[in-house]
Structures are given as structure tokens and as C-alpha cells.
Design brief:
about 30% helix, transcription regulation (chains A, B), DNA-binding, Arc Repressor Mutant, subunit A, about 35% strand, about 240 residues, 9 helices, homodimer
DNA sequence: GAGTGGTCTAGACCACGGT
DNA sequence: CCGTGGTCTAGACCACTCC
């Protein structure tokens, strides 16, 4: 039944850490010992441990062992875990209690040809045709974010405004076009533009957070460029690095 | 001479991708073929490929191959690559042309006892003694960021204001106290506080970017909590995810 | 010196994509 | 079907930390 051994081990150890079977600042049992406990090779155990480390739960030190890190209390509010994933993902998040309070307005939907300026922004090629979609994201009717997206038409075929109003990712799946492989994003804080002030409920804030995202298909093609501009005080983005 | 085979392979392939020996949207040679080329096992090749993937250069698809992703043009300005690493790291960045234009002012240096409120913020334990350090980061004399840091005293021993004025990380290294293992950070956009307006050159902006960072020692102890508050339009943070 | 994680080899079988 | 990457085994040797 266990399809992937290492992810079973990962789950088990993660639970045990949360239940304090292994306590912060102590080390886990050695890799050899875990290997015999789960009846797998050391390599498989190592793989699970690596995943725990990239989650920020443990940290391995040569010659000492795998140390359980002290936990961090975090009582963030709206939009905690989400992030570079966009609203589509947010709404499908099972743990998300806010789904019903979220909605989307498609403000703009049009075809544009990529010129030099747009090439600089999107990294698409000059001459490409792209869909430009501007979507307003509402929470309890408040306009908290706006997505400015460009999609390469050559990869999407003929898409309609109605498709965009539902979910573009759903459209891609339903038509079996391709799979999403990866995304690269950068986060900044910027002055609010006139358009921001027009469409977003920024209150008396005069700047916005900006999340710029490039998305790849599984054939290596850059297919989407989205800049999400959002009202301060409502979003957060988490990260973990080990050295 | 090659200490780590996989990182040699990683370097080689990375160069070849940049030189367009392997072009965007094409696949790399198969893992087996690369293994025989570099005269290593497939596992070792896979390790190098995994690293390339986490850099966002390639993406592996089962049954098809390892695809080279189309590159992204990016002409960001000040403080490009840096980020959750803090100013210490920024200044030691070899490629950084701005070093000489950067400086730090220690505004506050004091010992505090952790109470309940501070425990909520820092995840330190009530009753701990911590150093509170407020450092202003200047670029060409302009105050672009302020760091509010708490360090657990029990891990640092007797540190002076002078140590903080140089570099706390240097202090830790020189005294052989411990190694930095990992850090967890969250990024948000927040309203500017009175203090922000006092010390930062925000101009007419009324909000700031906030980067909250928890840092661990290699024995698993949470030892630093820093919130960097920075002026809009000068910073960016990059990220890459694959699915 | 004993025990830990880090690197690497040489095999094997499977799931998936394209033909 | 064949070739691809994904998972896993069963060993080996090394570098490091701690006692």
C-alpha cells in the first residue's frame, strides 16, 4: 500500500515531532537506526529527512545528528499559508475558511500583440499574441488585490472571457493543453499607481505589495506573466532556508 | 581535485545552459548518458540535476526528459539578489557594487527581559534576557531600512554596543559561539508606524515592507528575531517553485 | 575511537510519454 | 514498444563532532 516509502516516513516523523515524541533541541535517532525501524535503506530515510529540513522542522549537523528546531508561534490572520500560488490555489485550499468570502471580477479581457516594451515586462517575444486579463480579487466585497496577467495565446488557443471568469487553470486542465511545471516570482513594495487607487480599496495607503510571477509549462515554455498588486496588511509570504 | 562530483557536474551543466549548448525548450541528454559522460553513477547526475531544478533552470518530466526552461530577463536595480539574508550578507556579496555606499547606524542597544508580549513576537521564552538592537541601514546617506532585532543573551554572552556596531555575526564567529543553521522568514506590507516615519526616509510613502526573520543555531536553538522594515521601491525578493 | 551525517557506486524495478 | 525520469536497495568510504 505505501506507494512512496520516503513520504510515509516523512509523515510519520513529522507527526512525532509535532507530538513532541522528539523534542526541540534534541536529535532524532540516527539515520541507521531509523532505517532499521522503518525497514528501508539509509538513503530512503535521508530523503525523508531532507524534506523535513526543507520544511524547517529539523536541521542536520554532520557528526552530531539531526536536530529538532524550536518551533515558532505564528498567529497570522488572513491568507496565511498561501502565496505565490495565486488566488486560484487559495480558493482550493481545503483548510481555507474564507473561500465563501472570496470572489473575482474580470475587469479587462483582451488580446494584445507583444511589443518591445511588453517584451521587457513579460519576457515573451515581440510579435507574440497574448491575452491580457485584469482580475479584481474581493474579500467580503473589499477589493484587496488585482491581478494583471498576460498569457501566450499560442499555448491557450481560443479562450473566451467566460473561461477567464471561471478559472484559467481549469480551462487548461479541461482542454488537456499542458501541465504547469514551475514558477518564478519576485516580491516588492511599490508606490500605488492611479489604476491601483481606482480599483483597489487601499484606504489611505499610498503603496501596494507587488508579486510578479512567471509560470512555465512542462515543455519549458514561459506561458504566463502575472503581477498581483495587493493592499497592505492582508498578505504574508513564508520562506525557509538552511545553510 | 574535485571534492564534490555532483557540484562539478552542476557547474558544468549550468555553464552549458547559459552558453546555449542546450537550448530552451529542448531536453538535456538522458541521465544515463550524462552519467557515462561524467563517469559517475546516475544518482550523482540526478543530484546535480535536482540542484539545477531548484535554481529554476530546468524541469524534469517523467517519460520525456529534463527540459531547459526559457530564461527570464530581469533588470532589477538596487538590492537585486539579496534578501532574507540581511545587510550583513549584502555587504559581503562580492558582486555587490554598492558596498561603499552602504552604512549602518546603531540607534538603540539595550538588554530587555522577555515578557508575555515579547514572547508572542519573538517566540523566545518569558523570563529570557535578550539584547534589543535597532540598526538603521543607510544607502548614500538615505535611511532605507531599519532592523529591530532581538538576540538571546544566553547564547551570546556579554556583547557590547561596539560589537553590534561592527557585525554581530562576526562577533559570533570570532568567539566560536555556534554556527547559523537556518532561518525562517515572512514578508508583508504594513502601515508605517510613528517610529518608521521618524527614522526612515520614506518620503511621502505611508507604508513599509516588513521582513520578519527567525534564525536558528546549529543546535536547534532559536536565537535571533529580526524585523526589517524598509522603504518601498528599493527591494525585491526572488523565489522559485517547481511542482 | 565511536558515532554521526555527507558522498558515491552499481545495481534493480517501476510509471510514464511518445512511437 | 522503447526510452525517459522516479524510487529503492545494499553496500562503501570519508569528514566531522563529541567524549
Amino acid at each position: 500500500m505505501p506507494k512512496k516509502l520516503y513520504s510515509d516516513i516523512y509523515d510519520t516523523l513529522k507527526q512525532e515531532i509535532n507530538k513532541q515524541v522528539y523534542q526541540p533541541r534534541n536529535t532524532l535517532p540516527g539515520e541507521e537506526e531509523l532505517a532499521s525501524r522503518f525497514d528501508v535503506t539509509r538513503n530512503t530515510v535521508r530523503r525523508a529527512l531532507k524534506e523535513l529540513q526543507s520544511d524547517g522542522l529539523v536541521y542536520a549537523v554532520k557528526g552530531r545528528g539531526v536536530v529538532v528546531l524550536e518551533p515558532i508561534r505564528d498567529d497570522r490572520v488572513v491568507f496565511q499559508a498561501e502565496n505565490t500560488e495565486g488566488f486560484e490555489a487559495l480558493r482550493n485550499f481545503p483548510q481555507n475558511k474564507f473561500i465563501q468570502r472570496l470572489s473575482t471580477d474580470v475587469l479587462t479581457f483582451e488580446e494584445v500583440e507583444v511589443d518591445e516594451e511588453l517584451e521587457k515586462l513579460t519576457s515573451f517575444n515581440t510579435g507574440d499574441v497574448a491575452y491580457f486579463v485584469e482580475r479584481l480579487r474581493l474579500f467580503d466585497g473589499k477589493a484587496l488585490a488585482v491581478d494583471n496577467s498576460y498569457f501566450r495565446k499560442s499555448l491557450l488557443g481560443d479562450m473566451t472571457r467566460e473561461d477567464a471568469e471561471k478559472s484559467i487553470y481549469e480551462y487548461i486542465r479541461d482542454n488537456g493543453l499542458f501541465k504547469i511545471a514551475a514558477e518564478r516570482s519576485t516580491t516588492t513594495v511599490e508606490s500605488a499607481t492611479k489604476r491601483d487607487l481606482q480599483v483597489l480599496d487601499v484606504g489611505d495607503m499610498n503603496c501596494v505589495g507587488a508579486l510578479t510571477k512567471f509560470v512555465y509549462t512542462d515543455t519549458g515554455r514561459l506561458f504566463e506573466h502575472t503581477q498581483t498588486r495587493y493592499v497592505p496588511n492582508h498578505f504574508s509570504m513564508v520562506d525557509f532556508k538552511s545553510f
